Amino acid sequence: MRKKILALIIANVAAIGLFTACGSSASADNGGMYKSAAMDGGASVAMESEAAYAPNYYDGLAMEESVEADASGTGAAEAPSVEEAGAQSSRKLITRMNIEAETEELEPFVARIEGKAVSLGGYIESSSIYTSTSYYGSERTGREADITARIPAQRLNEFVSELEGGSNIISRSRNVEDVTLSYVDTQAHKDALEAEKQSLLKLMEEARSVEDIMAIETRLTDVRYELESIERQLRSYDNQIDYSTVYINLREVKVYTPQETATVADRISKGFRESLNNVAVGCVDFMVFFITHLPQFVVFIVVVIIIILIVRAIISLFRKSAAKRREKKLQKGKIGNAGKAEPVKAASDVEEAGQGGDTMTENNTSDERNNS
């Protein structure tokens, strides 16, 4: 039974904290909340808490009514402007800007931007300079810088003016986020937790048993953890509200991009200059390419010459071997022809001799006939 009563007491303390955070709610709702707490078994604690809180609450209402009564009197005409000014000053605004700009000298202008941010009371969150791909015929050198600057919100316009004065702004966008409601809710939650913390500390002083102390300590640890988390969130809000964030993309170029509509003469002049610039860039690129690759060209030419000499030597060897083969064939042909000619001649001589013998025989026969 003792544990249940202690748990109800801690629950009522938490309810008081939430009630403090929602002080703008109606008194009837608050009374209903305390009645429900009493029905749960903690009637005495709830009524004591209501009694302790009610005077301050109604005093606050009376003070607000008196202020409204004063405003409805002689100063009624000025009241709206004062309220609007107060509302405007109490609004929590987070401002972020994205700027793309061009400059003819990158590093000096980056140093100028960083110095201006520091002089205005801000700081550079991040900064980097790098070389990107430069396309043929482009006016860009390929060098860029990305800068994230945190500038006091009241002096943001001065910083932007400095950028405009030393560069060519290509694009600019501003995003303002109103976090007033979220900030107020978070602050109210923090106040409620602070009130609950103080109540738990008082209960801790009055606790007598170890079980009571442990239960209160457990809840107190949870409250402290929530308070730390909320305080971190509020600090983050304060930093973003007090210091506007500016994201800058800065490009180094040879010629600024025109912002206004150009006439025909301007377009012709710009096109002619771009053509000359393209020719100059092409010549420079070719010279750089040729000079940087000259050792490779020399090695390539030497290899090609060696290959040509080897091919010519091989062709010459083939020609000489072919000529030798032809000479051998001719020699073999002559020798063969000479061997075949003598037998033919011998056969013709035999034939002629045979024919001569026959002639002589015929002559002798004819002579014998005549003699007879």
Short account of what is shown:
The protein is of the alpha+beta class and 372 residues long. The chain contains nine helices and five strands. The chain has three domains: 1-71, no CATH class; 91-259; 299-341.
How would you explain this protein's 3D organization?
- The structure is a single chain.
- This protein has 372 residues and is of the alpha+beta class.
- The chain folds into three domains: 1-71, no CATH class; 91-259; 299-341.
- 72% of the residues lie in helices and 15% in strands.
- A hairpin with an 8-residue loop joins strand 2 and strand 3.
- Helix 1 (2-21) runs antiparallel to helix 6.
- It is elongated, with a radius of gyration of 55 Å.
- 12% of the residues are buried.
- Residues 23-87 have low confidence and may be disordered.
